[in-house]
Amino acid sequence: MASSKKNNNTKKSNNKSINKNNNKQKNEIKVKEETKKEENKLIKEEEVNKENIKEDVILEEKQEEFAKILDDDEKYEFEFKDNFLINFTSLFIVLFLIEIIFKLISGFSILSYATLRIILSDIIISLIISFLSTLTKRRWLKNTILIIFIFLYSIYSWLQLGFINFLGVYISFHTSSQFGAVTDYIYDFLASIKLSYYLIFIPFILYIVYLIIIRKKIYEKIKINLKSLFILFTVIICSSLYYVTLRIPFMQEALQVKSNRELFKNPDVPTIAVNQFGPVVFGVLDFKTFIFPIDDSSEVFKAENVVTKPVSREVSDALEEIASLETNKKYMSLNNYFASRGVTDYNDYTGLFEGKNVIVVLMESVNNAIINEKYFPNYYNIYTNGWSFANNYSPRNSCATGNNEFSAMTSLYSIYNTCTSNVYKNNTYFEAIFNLFNNKGYTTTSMHDFIEWYYYRKTIHPNMGSQKYYNASSLGIETAGYYGEWPSDEDLFSKGLDIILNNESDKPFMTWFTTVTSHQPYSVSSTYGDLYKDYFMDEGYTEYNSRYLSKLKVLDNALGIMIDKLKAAGKLDDTVIVLLADHYPYGLSKNNVSQLLDLPVNELNDYEIERTPFVIYNPSMTPKVYTQYNSYINLVPTLANLMNLEYDPRLYMGTDLFSDDYVSRVVFADGSWKNEDAYYNASSSKITYYTDKEYTTDEIIAINNEIKLKMDMSTNAIKNDYFTYLDKKINEYNLEHQEVNDDENLTDQEE
């Protein structure tokens, strides 16, 4: 028992010892934990203190920074931590280099106020794009945004160079309806690109190299703070300065056809707008007016000090009365303008061919290469035995064939940056060529050996008065299902003349042919491009020229068919034939055209490349060469006078070529003009003289204002379908006055 009790005591003693040790260990652990907590607390307090100190320092820096901004006496260097200024500066340099290269290639002056304006626009663009790119801290995304933007800037400028070279116009959203058709020209377009145009990509390549060199640079995401407000402030300042450049007098070209302020509002003269604003800003403005069309008819035209000389040609008084009663501003302006214009009088050529048949042939892509007795005897015979016009031109603009055909039929200037004939296809024109002949009792027709792919002639021609329009399908002419394989003009004239001459009507006929065989491409094989190619290759012409001349040979054969059929039907002596071109073969380079015409390349400048043949022919006439400067705009009033048709000369922008009032001058699509003495370049506002005669500044401005007014009024008339309105008003006027006359006659009879 004693032993057992002793053991129990020993166990209790041991347990106490163990518990004591455990408690000691727990106390030690607790102390350590508390010590650690104290240490952590001290560390946190130290971090907070450091953060507070850091914030205080940042606040002090911001205060100092803001103080520096406010301190005019202290130079302040602005630098973002994310290298925004470096990004902005590099982007601006690249964009400005692209613009300078574009100007150099285009032949635009660099030392001009236009360059200063472009600098400001590039600053604004660079600030905005750089800011947007820095909204991300991902370096690859930032660089990708900048690279894509610069590439698009470059490619758009490159395309503008290519289009003005190939088509004679700059790209415009207003001609987007033709995009599907234009894609057919891609191969020829690319083939026409000059090597110098690729220089536009040098700044883009340099920028890529620059990014590779600084590839290790670390970027941070920009924060919306005082610095971003500074960007906004800079954009506002630059935009204000840009606006000043549009208005301040000494920064304007005195001879410019359209002011910079007007162009900024509506860049409808692309050659001037691109020179003054650069290709990309022009594109932005063009897109703006495409989405939000501009109404240019807000100001009412008022004629001042109009002096009308007495003439024997009778025109209706309807215009004056309609103008005096109209309250609609857009029609008031047009009525006032047309009513105020002068009336060309009768002359020695009036009615010279009255009652004769008329055939007008608008020849596709023809220049003076066709005036060659060896290669094209049929055309040469007509040209040399008719009345030829040595200084005729076919100015190109958007949708060259469609717009020029429209102008030749209506004597209105088409809208430069718009595919006028298509966009306004539903307009009607009572004063157009077909309607004038309809009023004289003619049978009118129009024919074209292609389908409705490019232009809606099935609608356009009848709206101008063509009693019957025949296309390839209605003529039974087969067309290929792909671009470049055009039908034969021989079929057009063979089948077309059969329709005309087999008509049993006693009425004289007036027919309009638009040919197609000589259309580009000349760079690829085609049935008619290869038909006589080897012959012309043996004559020493290039392959492209040989294909073109081969197609031209088919056209000449077609003219021979026309003459033969008219002779066989006994109609040739009673028919007046008019041959003119829609435009020169712009599918050929200047070097190729130079070979065709046997002229140095530099002699094709100043729109000389757009010189085309024009002839009026009848076997009874005495051959004569006229030297007045001319274009298709004068066709309708000239024919109307020769055929003694009833027409009001005030409704046409062209003039009878044989009138005493005719001014020898050809006007190009952008407002440039040329005559015997000088060439005025609208895009550069410069004039080049050919003789000792010089114009005063006031004289040049007067000519430019006259041209601008005609083009503006043509545009407004087309956009507002003015001639449909005027036709209705004139009919109402005639009906009202007829009733008055009938009442007066009845009263006289009763008395």
Question: What features would you describe in this structure?
Answer:
The termini are far apart. The longest helix is centred in the first third of the chain and has 69 residues, at 2-70. Strand 13 (678-681) and strand 14 (686-689) form a beta hairpin. The chain folds into three domains: 1-74; 84-251, no CATH class; 344-669, 3-Layer(aba) Sandwich (Alkaline Phosphatase, subunit A). The protein has an eight-stranded mixed sheet, sandwiched between helices. The model is unreliable at 66-81 (pLDDT under 50). The protein is of the alpha/beta class and 751 residues long.
Which key terms come to mind for this protein?
single chain; eight-stranded mixed β-sheet; alpha/beta; 14 strands; four-stranded antiparallel β-sheet; 3 domains
State the gist of this model.
With 751 residues, the chain is of the alpha/beta class. It contains 27 helices and 14 strands.
* Overall 3D shape: elongated
Provide the CATH topology of the largest domain.
Alkaline Phosphatase, subunit A
- Oligomerization: single chain
CATH superfamily of the largest domain: Alkaline Phosphatase, subunit A
Number of beta-strand segments: 14
Helix proportion: 40-55%
In CATH, the architecture of the largest domain is 3-Layer(aba) Sandwich
The low-confidence parts are 66-81
| Tally of individual helices | 27
Rg (CA only): 38 Å
Question: Per DSSP, what share of the residues sits in E-state strands of 2 or more residues?
Answer: 5-15%
Distance between the termini: 174 Å
Structural class estimated from helices and strands: alpha/beta
Strand order in space, largest sheet: 5-4-6-1-7-8-2-9
* The CATH C-level class name of the largest domain: Alpha Beta
Please describe the biggest sheet, giving its number of strands, its sense, and whether it closes into a barrel: 8 strands, mixed
